[in-house]
Design a protein that fits this description.
glycosidase; Endonuclease III, domain 1; metal-binding; endonuclease; EC 4.2.99.18; about 55% helix; mainly alpha; metal ion binding
């Protein structure tokens, strides 16, 4: 069931969580996917589905040398591109989507990645998560990116009870102040990698322990 209404007490708890995240992690906007242009970030984000950012960065290091422009990707051979991105997983769909996405950007948008979320999500391979990465990192539009870390930790914090990423996004839009929409994702990624890991969360070391709503924290 989605968060319908935020009480004053709950709003205060959210503020305490965000203050601690600000204290322990950077407040600078940082993208973990290497890129030099908006379209490179778009392609890198498509590749990041079910794949680590570190692996994507290894792949794009050579990929963006081989395919220097959007036109290069639009004209790419499907089988060859599949081999180029094979190690990111789901390479057939990703290669097909990247080629179709590049074609649309070249023919309909003059090579410019749109900022409108509806336009973005109409591109092949682009869902709300990818669209929000672009909106936040390229256009600095307040956007909430729901990745695996945000999904897992937001549930533990009691910010959402949903499992669907889109529903989680809308819950978080109600819970979080707009000035933290982008920062929250970046800080939660850092927290999820260092303390609240998926397999072995370090609950006793977590500075959010007293604010966390996860029932399993006392077992860790």
């Amino acid at each position: 069931m989605a968060v319908k209404r935020i009480t004053g007490k709950e709003r205060e708890r959210v503020g305490e969580v965000l203050a601690l995240l600000d204290e322990h992690y950077s407040m600078e906007y940082k993208c973990y996917l290497d890129h030099e242009t908006p379209w490179q970030l778009l392609i890198a984000t498509i590749l990041s589905a079910q794949c680590t950012d570190a692996r994507v960065n290894l792949v794009t290091k050579d990929l963006f040398v081989k395919y220097k422009t959007l036109e290069d990707f639009a004209a790419a051979d499907l089988k060859e591109l599949e081999q180029d991105i094979h190690s990111t997983g789901f390479y057939h769909n990703k290669a097909k989507n990247i080629i179709e996405c590049a074609k649309t950007l070249v023919t309909e948008y003059g090579g410019v990645v749109p900022s409108d979320i509806d336009a973005l999500t109409k591109l092949a391979g682009v869902g709300r998560k990818t669209a929000n990465v672009i909106r936040g990192n390229v256009y600095h539009e307040p956007s909430i990116v729901v990745d695996t870390h945000v999904k897992r930790i937001s549930g533990k914090l009691g910010f959402t009870k949903e499992e669907d990423p889109v529903k989680i996004e809308f819950d978080l839009m109600k819970v979080l102040p707009r000035d933290h929409w982008i920062l929250y994702n970046l800080q939660i990624i850092a927290h999820g990698r260092s303390i609240c890991t998926a397999r072995s969360p370090k609950c006793r070391e977590c500075f959010l322990f007293n604010l966390c709503r996860w029932e399993g924290k006392n077992d860790e």
